[in-house]
Amino acid sequence: MAVAEGGPAREAVPEFDIFLSGTVFLDIVFTGMLGPPSGGHEVWTDGMGSSPGGVANLAVACSRLGLRTSLAAAFGGDVYGDFCWTLLEEAEEIDLSRSRRFEGWHSPVTVSLAFDDDRAMVTHGHPAPVELDALVAHPPTAKVCFFDAGSPRPPWLDGAIESGSLVFADAGWDSTGDWDADRMRAQLGGVHAFVPNADEAMAYTRTDSPGAALECLREFVPLAVVTTGSGGAFAADNTTGETAWAPGIPVDVLDSTGAGDVFLAGLVVGTLRAWSLQHRLRFANLCAALSVRDFGGALAAPGWGEVATWWAEVRDAPRMCKDYEFLNDVIPPGTPRAVSRADATIGLRRLPPLPTSPSTKETL
After folding, report:
1. What is the pTM (predicted TM-score) of this model?
2. % of the chain exceeding 70 in pLDDT
3. In the chain, where does the domain assigned CATH 3.40.1190.20 lie?
């Protein structure tokens, strides 16, 4: 706590709005598939995109919505690692001061196959040369921190909670099949928000509907949210006494990879701005819906420009005008930051232009 000379004590301003740690993958996404591949058959697709993935999905989504974002992760000493590092640090303006590059270690890679509004994934990778916790021995101060509650609770988390950070958590699929509710409750000690999808929530709570699962999970954390994809999201905020459901927004789905991370980023933005629970859910649903229209991974995340464009297109529709009128007060003024989208490849060489022929002069 800093004390101004001759004045009252002032709380130190956090360095960042959100701090994250985790694994960054190179995501290679194939779209346009009519079905999954089968033995002995070659499947051609009409769409492919390459993008940082894993924890980078949430980091990029937060940064594009204007949050000062810091990320701790290991990056491979290969072209994939160079691509992800450069894109995240320079194009997406994410702080990587607590990240490290490791020569001789290759980047984890995930291939995502999108079909029937779903996806299948294949991943290859090896453990990083150092434990992730070693990179986060002294995490930066942040208004919000994120961790995966399906993984061991990181040592730095309790200190972040004590310093005043709001912790948001989700949980991946439990490959053991145990879905141990007592273990999850212990994982969530001191955590502010838990945001599982409906299948995960119902498995942990042994319930048969997202609403019933929410009633159980609201005993775990102050803010419980259960997402149901295109079916919207249910939430209960014990700090405000609000409960809400917000429907999803119908869009043409290209790839749903990373949509849950984009939803979480929208929820964090609304929470930091003290929006009503209904507005937080509507905004998070909107961000997720905008993301599935493009190739998944981090680069599908919308920025404020995409939000503003969508609002300009639908604001005259009666339902949308009523439900999303609050966007008039929250979309930042001015020209939004331009964002990039996934390309089919990485490191495409930029060849110099061909030399032009010297102009000829007529000889008199």
Report:
1. 0.90
2. 94
3. 14-33+46-302
